[in-house]
Design brief:
118 residues; mainly alpha; two-stranded antiparallel sheet; 2 strands; 69% helix; elongated
Length: 118
């Protein structure tokens, strides 16, 4: 998906008016689609042990200009945090609230089941 985005973005800046006109419509549709599926693909990437959040921190500045990369990284982080809190609520609803389980994140920090990720 990223490579398609790069090609379309590059062709939009082409000197040929014919190519610009044709790709502007494509870019508009692609950007709409990209914005819808980007969060889902980002969450899947973060949950992949080979990529994690570090992968997004490296790739997003290549995909998005300037401050937009930081905003999208924060958006993914918020979505992960929301998913975690929803999971905690689900565990508590099913009787797991008495459990004293904790888990360690990548940095070795202990995460309490009732606390957010960040």
């Amino acid at each position: 998906m990223f490579q398609i985005k790069q090609v379309v973005d590059k062709v939009v800046q082409d000197e040929s008016n014919f190519m610009k006109d044709m790709t502007n419509a494509m870019k508009e549709k692609f950007d709409k689609y990209w914005s819808l599926c980007n969060l889902i693909m980002s969450l899947a990437s973060v949950l992949n042990p080979r990529i994690t959040m570090m992968g997004l921190n490296m790739c997003f500045p290549l995909i998005y200009p300037g401050d937009e990369a930081r905003k999208n990284i924060e958006k993914v982080h918020r979505a992960l945090n929301d998913m975690y809190l929803e999971y905690v609520d689900m565990l508590q609803e099913h009787g797991e609230e008495g459990s004293s389980r904790t888990s360690a994140d990548q940095n070795g920090l202990i995460l309490e089941p009732t606390r957010a990720l960040g």
